[in-house]
Amino acid sequence: MSPIPSAALNQRILPAATPPELLRNFCIIAHIDHGKSTLADRMLQLTGVVDARQMRAQYLDRMDIERERGITIKSQAVRMPWELDGTPFALNMIDTPGHVDFTYEVSRSLAACEGAVLLVDAAQGIEAQTLANLYLAMENDLTIVPVLNKIDLPAAQPEKYAEELAKLVGCEPEEVLRVSGKTGAGVTELLDRIVATIPAPGGDPGAPARAMIFDSVYDTYRGVVTYVRVKDGSLSPREKIVMMSTRATHELLEIGVISPEPVPTQGLGVGEVGYLITGVKDVRQSRVGDTVTNAAKPASESLGAYQDPRPMVFSGLYPIDGSDYPVLRDALDRLKLNDAALNYEPETSVALGFGFRVGFLGLLHLEIVRERLEREFDLDLISTAPNVVYEVTLEDRSVVTVTNPSEFPGGKIMEVREPVVRATILCPSEFIGSVMELCQARRGDLLGMDYLSEDRVEMRYTLPLAEIVFDFFDQLKSKTRGYASLDYEPVGEQAADLVKVDILLQGEQVDAFSSIVHKEKAYAYGVMMAGKLKDLIPRQQFEVPIQAAVGARVIARETIRAIRKDVLAKCYGGDITRKRKLLEKQKEGKKRMKTIGRVDVPQEAFIAALSSDSAAPKDAKRK
After folding, report:
1. Residue 487 annotated as binding?
2. What pLDDT does 14 receive?
3. In the chain, where the domains are located
């Protein structure tokens, strides 16, 4: 959500709360690139909250990075007026992200709604994230409005996909609405359907005020701006409020709705979605999932927080300039306010200095967070190669949690457990063989397979998370000519034959280059890393062996040749014994230097070897 501009103060003040029976709260859910933001644009135009002069494509995508990549990263709430049969209604719409890495944004948005518009591309049909978001909506007992978008495309097959969608939702194909976000066809009927079918919000207007915080953002001038959905009672300007988890008390300086720019109101009532400004600058005092209540007449119990997201991928973030460490800490604190799925803790590295170990929901989440930190806070960062969390059981039955290969214990190990995910892959049936081959190569187990239609199949696999955090999605796309879609969820842990591969430089272990891999892939990793370092580390005055080892056994080796000074340059003629004497003297010096010399690995080599840039996901360039 975008920060509240101070210009909002000069706008008209809307009257107090709208009656709950005239409210409709809904969100738009879909797979990436199925046209959520474009449909939202048409709704904004039709309801008149954005005039033609201000209108631009993907109006609700406020961040530069969203507009550049064509993807939605942050959910955006907007209030729109709509009239049906002469009755004026207020629609609170939330446009949600489509990518699997931002599912936590979607789950929070669903908790603030009574209904969901399930959008499916009429040319592509149901995809993995369509199913994932539908199941999330069903878990929240939301009313589903099935909609086919992009019916204006030449490749659209509305009849075929309406049947698929009807079967999935449990309705008749005729009940599936056909719209075009681009041309605006069918959007009026969709808004009428939303008012007619989605129930009005429930709640007790006379009870003590209770409002759930579903998002927040930091504004440099106005402090923390909190976005809430009121469940019971009402909130008014200038009253004292209490955050129920932290017990912090604040005065409400301003309260209002987003329409789609912030508009102050005289209060928020049952079922309404809006923003609160208290002037607080401490970002830790406004937690997503907390309940806001009235200080004079507080509620007895909170609404219950959201389920905390579980990080799937861990990576180290380090400032290139060590003096930027405090700036990075403050930047992560502020970003956490706007991205509740972010988890981080301080970490130090011999090679890279002070930084943070950050937990992400996926590779795209990692890439977006890093880019936001660099753009919004003017930081230069190194991100280390992503890895997952392992549990190692030693022979004495003690269990060690390993978030970094350097923490992997030595000695006798009884068992290593790794996180496992349940992956859902949707693809055309002609690619079944290619997908099976890829999943088996990544140690996957087939759970089942269902044909959604004659030419589309859903395959379910259990896969180790470590096997899919690097380039699995890229490989899947290339093997299916871009037609496959992937969704995954954690399902626990399993024992695996994993080993730690150490990299030795002249017999000394370099922790930063260690990695935990499956036993069968240890050799390939060792050869790759040794070859990479041979090219990156400059030549020394003596020969430097680079070895990859599992325990005490060396599995791969490369040698950096010594820089050889020509000691015979000054000999022009004369006896051969004189030349031999000089060569022997040089040989002795090299031998002594080899025993006492130390290999200095330049910072650039560390950055190039540890950087995850080569593993960055390419699936997020378009929404």
Report:
1. no
2. 47
3. 6-197, 210-294, 313-384, 406-496, 499-610
| Residue 149 counted as an annotated binding residue | yes
281 labeled part of a ligand binding site: no
Tell me what pLDDT residue 107 has: 76
Region label for 86, one of left (φ > 0), alpha (ψ between -120 and 50) or beta (otherwise): left
CATH architecture of the region 499-610: 2-Layer Sandwich (3.30)
- Contacts of 191 by beta carbon, 8 Å cutoff, 6+ apart: 43, 46, 47, 82, 91
Fold of 313-384: Alpha-Beta Plaits (3.30.70)
Task: Give the C-alpha separation, 598 to 569, whole Å.
Answer: 28
Q: Which architecture characterizes domain 406-496 according to CATH?
A: 2-Layer Sandwich (3.30)
Residue (of 114, 37, 117) closest to 72 by Cα position: 37
Task: Name the residue with tokens 């009253």.
Answer: 239
**Domain 210-294: assigned CATH number:** 2.40.30.10
The pairing of beta strand 343-349 with beta strand 76-84: unpaired
Is the full-model pTM beyond 0.90?
A: no
For residue 590, what pLDDT is reported? 63
Q: Please check if 462 is assigned to a binding site.
A: no
Q: Which two tokens stand for residue 321?
A: 């300039």
E strands in 161-312: 177-178, 210-219, 223-232, 240-243, 249-251, 254-258, 262-264, 273-277, 291-294
Q: For the chain, what percent of residues have pLDDT higher than 70?
A: 83
State yes or no: 152 annotated in a binding site.
yes
Q: Which residues pair with 428 in a beta bridge?
A: 456
- Cα–Cα distance, 386 to 363 (Å, whole number): 8
Confirm whether residue 492 is marked as ligand binding: no
Tell me: is residue 33 an annotated ligand-binding position. yes
The reply to whether domains 210-294 and 499-610 share a CATH topology is no
94 is in an annotated binding site: no
Query: Residue 318 and residue 374: Cα distance in Å, rounded?
Result: 12
* pLDDT single digits (tens) 278-326: 877 766 667 777 788 888 887 777 776 666 666 767 788 888 887 888 9
Domain 6-197: top CATH class: alpha beta
Strand-strand pairing, 515-518 and 353-360? unpaired
Kindly report, residue by residue over 340-355, the tens digit of the pLDDT.
778 888 887 766 778 8
